[in-house]
Amino acid sequence: MLRALARVDLGAISSNCALLKRAVGHGTLLCAVVKADGYGHGAVQVAHAALAGGAEWLAVATAAEATELRASEIEVPVLVMGALSDEELQVAVDARADVVAWRHRFVERLGALPGAEGIGVHVKFDTGMGRLGTRDAEEAFGVASEVAASQRLRLVGAMTHFATADDDPGFMRIQLDAFTPWAQTVRDAFGGVLVHAANSAATLCEPASHFDLVRCGVAVYGMDPFQADPAARGLVPALELWSYVAEVKLAAVGDTVGYGRRFVARHATWIATLPIGYADGFRRGLSDNAEVLIAGRRHPLVGTVSMDNITVDLGPAPSEPAGIRGAPAVLLGR
Questions:
Q1: Of residues 21, 35, 221, 244, which has the active-site annotation?
Q2: Cys staple from 126: which of 4, 10, 133, 167, with CB 3.0 to 4.6 Å?
Q3: Is the Cβ–Cβ distance between 79 and 31 less than 8 Å?
Q4: pTM for this entry
Q5: Is 259 an annotated catalytic residue?
């Protein structure tokens, strides 16, 4: 057994995308967000699984990520959502990826690049996220006008991004109320523009945000954007994380476990040590705040998560639990 083993269920990715497609209906496209190596699941593999499940678009954060997708013979539209330096912009153009714009200077730079003919541009109106995009509706419309008038570029999209779709629907409504008339103005002026705003949370809770395309990230991977049980929405978590029981020992009353002695045995109990820790991506913040599945039973993680070990309370027993040493342990999954 490997000390740390991550398993990705690509069938779950496809299933989640099919669920999201059903949620938005036939009139709205699904864009699967596969940035950050597909949220750590493997961008190329996730992209193919998402497309098999019904996604029509893919989105990434960087030009290099778009290049990786193209190298795997993915031909569907790819949107690079992040800011791009001059060097990165050329990489995006070479990958035939769509890009996001909100300043006139960016459009000028893009239009002057070799190979930029036909590159798609999505204009971003910042309605409250406070990061990328312009907060000036007139400037955003002006950028859209410049792209539409270009002989080399294509105006493909009008977009925004919600800051609180998962926890403050009131502010999301404020953003939606600001975005909707602006997007309609762009659509009326130029026609054929894809309007998009919804992330996973908005896709699942606010049909008015669906427009022409939704950009889903966490839900693609089976995570509930509202921190609830994914199964309640039919989502299937794609990632499993496994280790194994390397050691078992009895902790007497008053014995302590781990750095800082934060776990103190209040009664005699058996402690299992698993050779996985924060070096493997199991966050230290999960100290005393997680459960581990061993031999079909849930057991609390106790003590401090260290770099390459965690400890689990197996509970009291007159003797060492049979068959526990070497047993697989599930930290994420079923």
A1: 35
A2: 133
A3: yes
A4: 0.94
A5: yes
